[in-house]
Amino acid sequence: MIELAKGGRPAAARDTLVVLDGLSQLRNLDLERADRQYLTEQLQADPALAVCDISGRLVMAHLASKEDRSKQLEKARRAGDAMAARLNGAKRKEAQLLSLQDDADLTLALAEGCALGCYAFRKYKSDEKGAPTLEKLTIVAKEASTARVEELEDLCDAVWTARDLVNEPVSFLNAKQLAAEIRTLSRNAGFKLEVLGKDRIEAMGMGGLIAVNKGSIDEPTFSILEWKPKQAVNKRPVLLVGKGVVYDTGGLSLKPTPNSMDQMKCDMAGAAAVACAMAVAARQQLPVHVVGLIPATDNRPGGNAYVPGDVVRMHNGLTVEVLNTDAEGRMILADALSYGEQFKPELVMTLATLTGAAMRAIGSYGSAIMGTASEPAFARLANAGDTVYERVAQLPFWDEYGEEIISDVADIKNLGSDLAGAQTAGKFLARFTTHPFIHIDIAGPAFLTKRDGYRTKGGSGVGVRLLYEFLKLRAKA
Question: Which residue numbers are catalytic?
Answer without folding.
Answer: 255, 330
